[in-house]
Amino acid sequence: MRIRTITFCAAVAAAALTVLPASPAVAESEPHGSVRVSPGTTAPGGEVDLRVSVCSGREAIGTSEALVSEARFHPASDGGLFARGRIRMDAQDRDYDIWVNCKDSSGKASGRLTVVHGDRDRDHDRDHSHATPFRPVHAGGGGAATQVAAEAKEQGPGTRHAVIGLALAAVAAVAVASRSVRRRRGGGD
After folding, report:
1. Which DSSP letter does residue 103 get?
2. Pick from 24, 2, 29: nearest CA to 164
3. DSSP letters along 34-78, please?
4. Per-residue pLDDT tens over the stretch 116-173
5. DSSP state at residue 89
6. Which residues pair with 121 in a beta bridge?
7. Among 105, 11, 87, 13, which residue's Cα sits nearest to residue 44?
8. With a threshold of 0.90, does the pTM exceed it?
9. What is the pLDDT of residues 94-117, one digit of tens each?
């Protein structure tokens, strides 16, 4: 009786793993790096330098709620990729995430910058000799798709994980039930 239970449990577990594709965490093998932001703290309207070294190609796109528009990365003279970004004039005092996707390779990077309203007038006079927009033009979503995809990944387990969990719970229930039946019949371990 015990061998049948173990065989059944192994068969259910093998079937669950065979039928269901690997989870995204296992399937993803793309390199992940970090975005270096300089300066790490800046005022609305200020500029930041962004650098990544995870991309093996020559282009990348960076997005953040803090930036006026997506940052386009190109090769830096000292290696890696470089971009410059301008902070939105209506950005709030807080930390903002930055996501970078390599265009011609499979790498990704993330980082964080902080917006403060402290020395806004001094930075504005130094950095702005001409008017700049504080929001991107609403024409097609720009980098929003990247941000939505990143948020979707962070939402937790999906249907595959629920099905695997239910299958494993069923296997455990069958094992417990069969053990209880054996004990009642006097066959115990």
Report:
1. S
2. 24
3. E-EEESSEE-TT-EEEEEE---SSS-EEEE-TTBSSPEEEEE-TT
4. 987 544 444 444 444 445 545 555 555 555 555 555 555 556 677 778 888 888 888 8
5. T
6. none
7. 87
8. no
9. 999 999 998 877 789 999 999 998
